[in-house]
Structures are given as structure tokens and as C-alpha cells.
Amino acid sequence: MTISADHTAPDTTSSAAPGNALTEAVKKFGITVEDYMLPARHQIQMVDPDGRLIPEGEQGTQPGHEYPVPGDKELLAAYEQLVVGRRVNDQNSALVRQGRMAVYPSSHGQEACQVAAALCLSEGDWMFPTYRDAVAVMTRGVDPVQVMTIFRGDWHGGYDPLKYKVGIQCTPLTTQLLHAVGVAHAAKLRGEDTVVLAMCGDGATSEGDFHEALNFAAVFHLPVIFFVQNNKYAISVPLAHQSVAPSLAHKAVGYGMAGERVDGNDVVALLAVLDRAVKLAREGSGPLLVEANTYRMQAHTNADDDTRYRESAEVAEWRAKDPVNRMRTYLTGRGLLDDDGEARIRDHAEAVAAQLREGLGEDVPVDPQELFRHVFAARTPQLKEQSAMLADELARDAAATDSKEAGK
Amino acid sequence: MSPTITTSSEANGNVSAATARAAASAAASAEAAGPQPVTMAKALNTALADAMSADSSVLVFGEDVGMLGGVFRITDGLTAMFGEQRCFDTPLAESGIVGMAVGMAINGMRPVIEMQFDAFAYPAFEQIVSHVAKMHNRTKGAVKLPLVIRIPYGGGIGGVEHHCDSSESYYAHTAGLKVYTPATVADGYRMLREAIDSDDPVVFMEPKKMYWTKDSVDLSELRRLHEDSRAEGTTAGLGTEGRAAVARPGTDATLIAYGPSVPTALAAAEAAALEGRSLEVIDVRTIVPFDDATVCESVRKTGRAVVIAEAHGFASVSSEIVARVQERCFHYLAAPIRRVTGFDVPYPAPKLEKYYLPGVDRILDAVDDLQWEN
Ligand SMILES: Cc1ncc(C[n+]2csc(CCOP(=O)(O)OP(=O)(O)O)c2C)c(N)n1
Ligand SMILES: [Mg+2]
């Protein structure tokens, strides 16, 4: 099978001219358009589960799919965030058990994906996360307590998306991918070189908006990286019930973009692949799709019972592929990490956990009038009426309580 | 890349009166002076062109809106005038169109998007309800979505299935959306410009059977008034949002209508006048926010009311209007408020639509039922 000539022929009718730019991107690697778009025959892995760097010759990579190992500094920074991310995941699960948080969809086991998704971006770039991506949002620099506000239950969001260039943590599956496309499109029209990373899960790739977003990004030739964390389950439903494609990364070719799959528990490989994707997108390659092969180690949320749909042996198998341990072994082996370094990083993680315990431990009083404040830019007469009604109701309640107290 | 495209925050609010007038005069040069017969389609098209001239962050996109100018020609000529980057066709995907508009609005643009027909906006319902309506609220006002979703709606054109729905109640029911629907050619211009300037998302419902309606309108005067108020940063005195219009004054009963039902209500009032009954017609103009004051003032004066809408009556904008008026005007009412609406059946095939649509006779029958003393 070859890719239709339309993709390589110069396109003079469309202003977006994806054909041209794509050809340029392909030229860099000296391969065919088809080989550029199709993922490598194997997932990209650089450090094996035992923490050993896979020698270049044994990586099984093909032309156009070779990736250099990221620099030491980036790897150490990533490890630190992995440790912090793991601690945050486990702290939050504890806070849910104590009733301090309403719910927390943990990314325990997926921290390498979370960390790499944030670290590959520059300050002016945008990220569009899901409900499961709190650690990625934090790694991007958003205050941890603000990130968790959504799960504490006093408002549907706690941070300003414009300030951090991070979309809301989105729950309606894949709807945020289109917002990512729009942000990239607006930036492109203004001539800015913003790259947008759009995140979703494996199950979510079945949604209509997944298709619409990938197609729009490809047709308008936008610098969007679709980053799919394939953690094998959508609540209880395994991947085999969502898709029978050779891999989720293979979906890319259907839209005319490049796809790659990567070991989602290997932060070295993730950084290598995502860094290159960001660079390509910024240089005008158009969108890319990266599938991270990982595993959801815990139940979907605290409200879910995963023993109803999967074997504990399967979970145990993945525990051996843990992203944090793997990276610790690798860095220690390379002499980049010693006991002092490890201790310092642990202290950092503990400090963030303490910040969360403190920030989520106190009950922040909610203001009922907040209900009416942000529906529109200015309140409508109807909202003014309803807000006065609630104020009156509360005033009468307070007066009744006061007189009861006085009567005691 | 077009360096002429800027973010709405830059463009908005600091459009000088001079810039606005320059844009206005450029667009106006092709027009004859003074009131002229103008179609609703032309008024909407002119409003889009003027808004795009006034603010480079205003973008128009949708299905067939580029080279073709839209299936109703409302975007005619915009691609030629402003280039493919500012008025363009998207792939066929309504959720994609709305979702991308959300992202563009987050990133400083003012998208004005077209849904080709009422029923073809349904694939975008999730984006509209879960994001367009809620983004401002969930971010405590940090993210504003100044976007306009234009939807041709309603029947009366002999359209086949899925081309004649009155879908306004879905949007009006959704907190966080503004819903405008013009019923005159002048309002077509005024209200679309106001919708585009609004920092809130607006669902702009265009009565499709009125696209070819002509009124005598002075577009350059409307443009001048709008640009002046824009330069002053206020639409006070001119604004249509939350302001119903008295389309025809009267004393005996009030007909409350919006969009495509306004001309029907006016025709009914005309017929009633021949029989000696003076009916006041209120054109709601913006369903959200609703102008309780103007509607109730009229009903308190006349003591009788009929609400008219093409949409099914059950759980609809018309039922909402009856409830609101009843709550506020009960002691002024001489008779229960009546409604004349579409039947609670799926919109019928072309040969049956005349039985479905509220018409003059049905309205007059309802008026006759308002417990007159003599
Ligand atoms: C449109 C929509 N349908 C259903 C849901 C309910 N839901 C929440 S998470 C989820 C599973 C998603 O699985 P996946 O995309 O694999 O992401 P994961 O939770 O595994 O990270 C479902 C069905 C939803 N949030 N949005
Ligand atoms: Mg999953």
C-alpha cells in the first residue's frame, strides 16, 4: 500500500497546503511518507524494566524512528517529578479515604507519562489534560492545591487555564481535544509557534470527538500532539472492546499524520519521543499521535472495584515494570543519582504531600453567592432575582438560628 | 501567516472611533444612501462583514461558508473580502466546529460559526452544553468564550426532514447560553453585531423563512450607530439584549412572539384590528436574557395574553413565558394565558406543515377564547 499521491504532490489550491509541509518533515528522515506516518514496528523503549539502557543496536528501531537519549539534566528532573508524582498520587488516595477529597482518579503507575507530557513543553505551549492527569498539570507548574480543588468539591476547577496555559481537567471524554485544536489554530493564524499537547485515554479513542479532533488538526495542519495513555482499561472495559486496530498509534495514518508508540513506563523513551514530536510540530510537521503503552495500577477511581473485571496476576505483572523504580535503577547505575540525591528528592516529595494535606485539610468556607457570579460576564435580571432570593433565605435561616441561640 | 489577525482582547475595547468609522465607510461605499429594501440575509451578511472589518479576531467558519457563501448565502463574499484564514470551510463535523471554536475563543479569537441547519447542530450538543455554556462559570470568569453559534431554524419553507426544527428551547434551557433571535431586518443587523461583541457565548437563531424578507432599512445608519456605541464601549440605548420590542402597540390583548412567529402575530393583529380588536405584539428578541419587564408591562396593561411559537409547546420557551407572566401578572389577568404553538409531533413533511404551524386563524381563535365580557 502506498499513500495517495495527493499527499506528496504540491497543493496549490489550499492555503493550509498540508502536502507541502508534510513532505518537508518526511524529507528530514529520508523515508517515504508511508514509513513516516506508520509507527515503528515495535514500541520505542530505551530503558528496560530492570533499569538497563538498551544498546542502540538492539532497540529494533527503523530509519526515521531512532531517538537519541535525552540529556542527564532532563532525566534527573524527570526522575524528581516521578517521585513527587507518585507521592502525590498516594497522598491523594489517602485524602479520599479520609473524606478530605470527594474522588481522585489516580495515575499511579502512569507517572512517567504524566511527567513527560509536561516536561516536553515550553512555557508558551498549551496542555489539555483529562481528569486523570492531575500530576501532569502539577508538573507543568500549577499549584498542587489548586489542581486538587476540583476533587475537593468546592468548585469545578481551581486554576486559571490562561495563566498556566493548561486547559481545564476535562471529564467529557475527548471534548478537550477539539479545544486543543482551536488553541493551536488561533495561534497559527497569529503566526505564533505554540505547540499544543492534547491528552486522552485508550477508551476515549472510540469517541466521535477523537476522530473530529485528529481530522481537524490534520486538515488544518496544526501543531497538536495527541498523547494517548493506553492504560488498558476504560473503567472496566478492556482495550480489545474499544478497538481492533494494530495499535492506537496506527490510527494516525488514517488522518494523514505520523504515529508512534512508546513504552509508557519508560520516561527516557517518552521524553525522547515527545521531545522530538514537539520539535517537529513546532517546525511545521503538522499534528502527531503518540500512544504510551502503560497500565492503570489502581481502580478507575476510589469508587471502583477492579477485582470485578481483572486478575491480580495481571496487576502484579505490571508492578514489575514500575516507571519510578526503573528510572531509579537506571540513574543510580549511571552514577547520576546517589543516596544524598535520593534523600533530597524524597524531601521534596514529602513537602508537596504536606502542602496537600494542609491545603485540603482545612475546610474553606464556600460562598453561596458565588453560584450566580460567573454564569455570564454580567448578571441577568433573572440571576439577580434568584441571588436575592437565596440571600433572603439565608438571612432568615441565620436570624432563626440566632433567636434559637438567644432562647437557650 | 497573517500578521493582521490579533487577539480579541487587543482588538476589543480599544477600537478607536476612527478605525471603526474607516471600516464602516469602506463597507458602506458600495451602498446607496438612505433607507433601501434590504433582505434579512443581506443584513446578516453585512453585519458579519462589518464585524470582521472592525475586529480582526472575528473569524467565520462552518460547512460551505467559504467559496459558496453558505447554503443560505449569509457568508457570501466574506472569503473574498477577508481571505481564507478568516472565513473558511471546515470538515463536516459539527462537534468539531464548535469544539474548535471553543479553543479559538480560549486563545483570543471571536469565532462566529455556522451550523448548516437546526437539526444538524445536534452532533455539537455536547460541546455546547458541557463547554460553551460552562467554561466561564467553571473557571470563575477566568476564561470567557466570546463566540457566536449561528443556527438557521424553524419551518415554513417546505423543507424536508431535519431542516425545519425549532430547537431554541434546548439552548434556552441551558444555563450559561444567551439565545438571540431577530424578527426584523434591522434587528438582524443590530443583534448579530451585538452577539459578536458580547463576551458571553450567544446561540443566534435565524428564522430561515425570513432570510428573504425585505424591510426598508438604512444599513449605513445602523452601522454608524453601532460603531459609535462600540467606540464608546457601550450599547446603552441601542442594545437589544434583554430588551423586547413592542412590534405593534395595542390595548386589548398582548401577543407574545419571537423570531419566525413575529410576522404571523403581526398579521393576526392586523386581522383583529379589522374586527375592532386592538392587539399589542411583543417581539421577545432575546429569549435569554428574557425581558420580563416589557412583557409584563404590556400584559398588565391589556390583561390578556397569547404566546405564539413554532416549536412544540410541551416543556418549551412558550411554556416558560406563560409561567413567568402568570407568576408576575396573575392579578392583572382577565383570562388564562393561551398558547398557540406547534403540535407535539415531529416536524411534519412539507405538505403537512401548514396544519402544524401556528397561523393567523389559530391565533385569532385563541384571542377569541380570552373570556371577553361581550
Ligand atoms: C462522553 C463521556 N462518556 C462517558 C464518560 C464516563 N467515563 C469516565 S472515565 C471513563 C473511561 C475512560 O477510559 P480511558 O479513556 O481509557 O481513560 P482512563 O480513565 O483509563 O484514564 C468513562 C466511560 C465520560 N466521562 N464522558
Ligand atoms: Mg484507559
Could you please describe the fold and organization of this structure?
By secondary structure, chain A is α/β, with parallel strands linked by helices. Chain A is 47% helix and 8% strand. Chain A has 16 helices and 7 strands. Chain A has helices at residues 18-29, 33-37, 72-97, 111-119, 134-139, 144-152, 161-164, 175-189, 208-219, 251-255, 267-282, 312-319, 323-333, 339-361, 370-373, 381-407, and strands at 126-128, 196-201, 224-230, 233-234, 237-238, 258-263, 288-293. Chain A starts with 17 loop residues before the first helix and ends with a helix. Chain B has 374 residues and is α/β, with parallel strands linked by helices. Chain B folds into 2 domains: 8-232, Rossmann fold (3-Layer(aba) Sandwich), CATH 3.40.50; 245-368, 3-Layer(aba) Sandwich (Rossmann fold). In chain B, helix 5 (94-106) runs parallel beside helix 6 (125-132), helix 11 crosses helix 15 (360-368) and helix 12 packs across helix 13 (317-329). The longest helix of chain B is centred in the first third of the chain and has 15 residues, at 40-54. Chain B is globular and about 65 Å long. Residues 9-26 of chain B have low confidence and may be disordered. At the A-B interface, helix 7, helix 8 and helix 9 of A face helix 5, helix 6 and helix 7 of B. Residues 132, 171-173, 200-204, 231, 233-235, 296, 300 of chain A line the site of thiamine diphosphate. Residues 132, 171-173, 200-204, 231, 233-235, 296, 300 of chain A line the site of thiamine diphosphate (TPP). Chain A: Its cofactor is thiamine diphosphate. Chain A: Keywords: Oxidoreductase, Pyruvate, Thiamine pyrophosphate. Chain A: Its EC number is 1.2.4.1.
